[in-house]
From TrEMBL, chains A, B:
Transmembrane segments: none annotated. Keywords: DNA-binding, Transcription, Transcription regulation. This is IclR family transcriptional regulator. Residues 21-81 form the HTH iclR-type domain. SMART domains: HTH_ICLR. It comes from Salinactinospora qingdaonensis. Residues 82-264 form the IclR-ED domain. Signal peptide: none annotated.
């Protein structure tokens, strides 16, 4: 990413630099208070989760509701349909998903396993698309959800083909353990990434969860670095990684080629 | 929807009622400036589209970027990945999609046509999910996109099973024409909705676009009104509506039953 006018310190004085969080920061906290399991949340609960005063939650919620970003539901609030509409326009998701979809359906049909598409965001991967296979276990991932990059095949595939700063950031963040097999030491992760760079493929051998294995390939963008990763996941006892590796690898190369041609 | 404290005029004084648009209103306008075809937009273009001063766009964009709602891309801006994440948590979409998915894949497989799931929002329908069939034309809809309710089978199916105020709002909004067959007179729309109520099904006979036909059923919620609609669309010359009607109807009844059992 190029450094632009956005980071220019000369512009900093124009920002709302007061000690109190800005309206945008508070609105963002309010929207971010909703988790995957939350149906509706009341004002008191939102105040508790965000640390905002109830009167502030009331005032912000009324405005966010007027713009469709929240919706009233009985006595509580839920995320608004407009967020879904805006989310569907997110370009990084849109163009990658369109390019990846046919490869994902092919992989899903050919293996009976689950095909996934993910991008890196800081130290985590965000899943853009998941196609659940006919013979596949429940996975810890969900569309729009996050997992620590170092603990997943998609994350390792992207990191292996990312600038060194991306790997440094992950190591600085600390390597949390998701299963007894998660790589949690910096040295081992660096060696693993070197192996992945050489092979062009990454494996998750029950590192994101016991009983689950995964093979992933990076999707290489026009700049020669990974912009995403494509993977196939299944039961550790049933999905033979060496057997599906070539299929996943081929799909990744084709996707990189087709995606590099279109807009990023 | 129950009237709540949100509409209480006693709370109105707490709102930011100044003549100038609020930070949330301006941020909402900025996010809303991006359309389906936009890759990235520059500050000047965003200022032009929103009517905001360039300095305001700069300041808001910097803050929205800090919270992941926008992303810098070269010299321009694009909608941020966080909007995609938040959009995936929108409950109205989540629970309906999960309930509808198996029925949609069945309809798609059985007919080769395209299965769609949509909800009403004001005078328009918003598409929550689209499963493109193997023998289906390009449709004017897209996931997260909108079409006028009166011109689509899903919209008419929902309106026929909605409170009268919903129909009144659509008529007040004016019946725009999408094709030479769109219903554009209030009297004809009211008669059409009465027919749909009786049949439990709605048809789009090239009303949303020439060459396309569609059969839709309402998804009835716990309150006895439509919360969504499920449809099958295909080529007007090839998709025989009477032949698929029973399949769509059956799927809609089953979906209404299963959805009424879960949380709205």
């Amino acid at each position: 990413m190029r450094a632009g006018e956005w980071n220019d310190p000369r512009n900093a004085s124009a920002a709302q630099d007061s000690a109190a969080p800005s309206v945008i920061a508070r609105s963002s906290a309010l929207l971010g208070a909703f988790g995957p399991g939350d149906h509706t949340l009341g004002v008191s609960e939102l105040a508790r989760r965000t640390g905002l005063a109830k009167s502030t939650v009331h005032r912000l919620a009324r405005e966010l509701t007027a713009h469709g970003l929240l919706e009233r539901d009985g006595g509580g609030l839920r995320l608004g349909l407009r967020l879904f509409e805006l989310g569907q326009l997110v370009r990084r998701r849109q163009s990658l998903r369109e390019a990846a979809w046919p490869f994902m359906t092919d992989l899903c049909t050919a293996t009976g396993a689950t095909a996934q598409l993910a991008v890196l965001d800081g130290t985590e991967v965000v899943y853009l698309e998941i196609l659940v296979g006919s013979d596949a276990p429940d996975l810890p991932s969900r569309v729009g959800g996050r997992l620590p990059a170092h603990a997943t095949a998609v994350g390792k595939a992207i990191l292996a083909f990312s600038p060194a700063v991306a790997v440094d950031e992950v190591l600085r963040g600390g390597l949390v353990r998701l299963s007894s097999r998660t790589i949690v030491t910096p040295g081992r992760l660096r060696r693993e990434l070197a192996t992945i760079r050489e092979a062009g493929m990454a494996y998750d051998r029950e590192e994101s969860g016991l009983g689950i294995v995964c093979a992933a390939v990076p999707v290489i963008g026009p700049e020669g670095t990974a912009v995403a990763a494509l993977s196939v996941s299944g039961w550790s006892g049933r999905l033979r990684l060496p057997r599906i590796a070539a299929a996943v690898h081929t799909a990744g190369l084709a996707l990189s080629r087709s995606h590099a041609a279109g807009p990023g």
